[in-house]
Design goal:
- The protein is an alpha+beta fold.
- The strands form two sheets. Strands 4-3-6-5 form a four-stranded antiparallel beta sheet. A two-stranded antiparallel sheet has the order 1-2.
- The radius of gyration is 31 Å and the shape is elongated.
- The two termini are 27 Å apart.
Amino acid sequence: MAKSHLFLAALALGAALSSPVQAQDETAATVVAKVNGVEITLGHMIAAREALPEQYKTLPNETLFKGILDQLIQQTALEQTVEGKLKLVDQLQLDNARRDYLSNVALTDVVTGAVTDAALQAAYDDRFKDYAPQKEYSAAHILVDTEEKANELKAQLDGGADFAELAKANSTDVGSGANGGELGWFGLGQMVKPFEDAVVAAEIGKVAGPIKSDFGWHLILVKESRIAEKPTLEAMREELASELQNRAIDAHIKAVTEAATVERLGDGLDPALLSDTALLDK
């Protein structure tokens, strides 16, 4: 049974819980249960709660306490049944799980320290130090495979046909076609060059084309244009924070790895050995 299933089973057992004992001066070392002499502490329970999916954390503590305690008791009892019986693959998976967990612990402070108000402001200033107002366009298009088809549709548009309806019925760009050809707002550099050049040269409200690109033949309707405002720091906060964190993580990993004595003894091995699971039975 998977860990989540164990928790759900234990939670069901703990649904009808009597009134909790009044909290005292407990610590993480407070023993809450023993299984064949092996202690389970309040700290173990708190750590288990922190590892739960967010939807479980919203449950009342009175319910979680019994559910988590039952889970830890069950897991400890199960763990004891395999002591001395682990296969090589089991031990290797434990080694890797420990390595993975502790490497994340090692990066926690790095991530936390990377994102400060000063660092965010500096990253924002650097990103937009050469910012110049950019023009954006709101446009729709109809994409077809041949110039002949494009000209046929253009003639219909010149005769008063509805652009959105023709896009829905004919455009090979399924995403925009289903939405009447709408492409939304975009700036220069976001579209392929022939398309972008046609948009820049187009008269607002009039259909341009046919225009050929690597995707086919376009009929383009530019609806509006505007000067895009520089995004605020608040709007960029999440993106900049992610960049700062990734940069700090990469730098820290590089520094720690370079400072370590590393002997790459497996570089000459046959890469095919990686999929030889039979080695784990030897």
